[in-house]
Design brief:
Strand content: over 45%
Distance between the termini: 61 Å
Largest sheet: 9 strands, mixed
Amino acid sequence: FPVTIVRPGLRFSVQSLFENQYASSIGVRHLFAKGFEVRSSYGTSFRTPNFNELFSKQIFDGHFFAGNENLKPESSTTYEVSVKKVKHFNDENFLSNQISGSYIDLKDKIDMALLRFNPDTGNPEYQYINVSQYRVFNLATVHYYKRKYWSVSLGASFTGVSQKIDNLVFA
């Protein structure tokens, strides 16, 4: 009964404004006997800045938002793993328990940052920047019980985020 499914992926993007980019992934799903399932995946990806993030300038009553022509594309590496157990009591009654974890390592995340307060008006001025290092760790659990037409679920998640900005041009 054990079944293993492997799912690879590859994408390539040719660009004129930035270097050519690629994304790759591999996912593995293994089904064991007695309702156990294990999944894992690994992937790399990218995101190029959009037009607004690069070139926009929006100034209106008390607001100043500016693009940044010096933005670099984001690049990321993601790892995920999960374990799930489904117990069927009969045709209309089952319990599912799952625990999962993921880690994302994102370089040059594009985000809006407060640059300064305009000395003449006191208004805040914002601009898109690259966050040098951005990491996310997530641990989650989901429990689901169904009996005929009724179902109950309970879940919890812990998420940790860290970021580092090496390219501060403002203090």
